[in-house]
Amino acid sequence: MPEMVKIKMIGFNEVEEILSTLTGDFGMSTECLSNLLGVKNDGHKFEIPTGHEYHSFMFLLLMLDNIVNEEPDFKFKAFLEVLIEVHKLSANTIAKFAKIKEQDVLDFINGTNTVPIEIKYRLASVIMTLRFIFKAVEPKI
What we know:
This protein is mostly helical. It has two domains: 12-69, no CATH class; 72-136, 434 Repressor (Amino-terminal Domain). 60% of the residues lie in helices and 0% in strands. It has helices at 12-24, 30-37, 52-66, 72-85, 91-98, 102-109, 117-134. The longest helix is centred in the C-terminal third of the chain and has 18 residues, at 117-134. The model has no long low-confidence stretch (mean pLDDT 88).
């Protein structure tokens, strides 16, 4: 049975705090955030959307807020699994694109700590490129 994901509800103050952290601590411009989140701003305050737009806004905002908590290997492994399971690319094909051994891809999938950082870098580069290419044909959730 799939693991249930708990969703934390956040209020207006938390939204403001996240936006403040993104602009203040991480140096994101209000113009950049406004464009990404699809909201208007006056240079200081963001217009928080309602309805359907609110859900998209919150999804992106929480993804940005969580970036510092994510482990890079976990994220790349998840993207790699999508490429293999959803798009039916083989570990061998991905390895050939990355100019590494298939066993390195398999070791990375299995979470072994034996994969050198240089191999992870090559693999990550290919994973992100393939993810970008195949994103357009992914099934909608």
